[in-house]
């Protein structure tokens, strides 16, 4: 059964330490992506001028480009060889990156691993490279309550992964084939789990309690 881990890594061990020093109010957040290349970065809490000056002074950043802006945040494509290296190492044991953000000179991550052993492999790989890993929380999917919906742990895991990876968004951010690969199961098995989970949820929602099916 899969494991979700939350941990943080100091920027001084990886990338963009200077960026945090030059723009201390900035919050950086990796954009959701199913790509194996480094995702773009949302920046908030600072000005365009301040963050671009910080990027320019950072020797771990080779190139940056503003690609979009909103009322309170900016989206940049950032080329960073050291950042890409960290990203590749995080995914090297088959983990899936769910969330990543940077603030106060720390990068914080939330990842899903197929097993605790895959998490241990990633932890050991990073530490062997001299990267400090501050583990915050580890949760086995089987320990997460599914409430009264009668979902099996496997169905709950599939639905949770689909939601977190953007399968239900329009447009979809991940295909069923990619999601199945992340979970370590076949496309057919994932399709069946989701179909049964939908049926269970609909059954619980639209039928009176004393009329719900039990199969």
Give a brief description.
The chain is an alpha+beta fold and 215 residues long.
Structure commentary:
- 37% of the residues lie in helices and 25% in strands.
- The protein is an alpha+beta fold and 215 residues long.
- An eight-stranded antiparallel beta sheet has the order 4-5-3-2-6-7-1-8.
- The radius of gyration is 20 Å and the shape is globular.
- The mean pLDDT is 85.
Low-confidence stretches: none
**What is the mean predicted local confidence, pLDDT?**
85
Major sheet attributes = 8 strands, antiparallel
The assigned structural class equals alpha+beta
Helix/strand order? EHEEHEEHEEHEHHH
Number of strands: 8
Envelope shape: globular
Strand order in the sheet with the most strands: 4-5-3-2-6-7-1-8
End-to-end Cα distance: 23 Å
How much strand?
15-25%
Number of helices: 7
Helix percent band: 25-40%
The Rg value, from CA coordinates, equals: 20 Å
Topology:
Layout: E1 3-10, H1 17-22, E2 27-30, E3 41-44, H2 48-57, E4 63-69, E5 73-79, H3 81-91, E6 96-103, E7 106-113, H4 116-128, E8 134-140, H5 153-164, H6 176-183, H7 187-206
Antiparallel strand pairs: 1-7, 1-8, 2-3, 2-6, 3-5, 4-5, 6-7
Helix pairs in contact: 5-7, 6-7
């Amino acid at each position: 059964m899969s494991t979700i881990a939350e941990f943080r890594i100091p920027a001084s061990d990886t990338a963009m330490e200077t960026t945090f020093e030059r723009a201390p109010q900035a919050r950086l957040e990796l954009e959701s992506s199913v790509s194996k290349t480094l995702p773009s970065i949302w920046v908030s809490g600072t000005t365009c001028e301040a963050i671009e000056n910080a990027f320019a002074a950072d020797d771990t950043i080779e190139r940056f480009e503003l690609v979009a802006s909103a009322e309170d945040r900016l989206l940049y494509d950032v080329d960073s060889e050291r950042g890409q290296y960290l990203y590749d190492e995080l995914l090297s044991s088959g983990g899936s990156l769910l969330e990543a953000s940077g603030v106060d000179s720390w990068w914080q991550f939330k990842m899903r691993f197929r097993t605790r052993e895959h998490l241990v492999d990633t932890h050991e790989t990073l530490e062997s490279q001299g990267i400090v890993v501050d583990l915050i929380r580890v949760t086995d999917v089987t320990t997460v309550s599914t409430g009264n919906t009668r979902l099996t742990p496997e169905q709950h895991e599939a639905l949770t992964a689909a939601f977190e990876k953007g399968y239900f968004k329009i447009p979809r951010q991940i295909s069923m084939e990619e999601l199945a690969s992340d979970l370590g199961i076949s496309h057919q098995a994932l399709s069946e789990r989701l179909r049964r989970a939908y049926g269970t949820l609909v059954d619980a929602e639209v039928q009176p309690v004393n009329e719900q099916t039990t199969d």
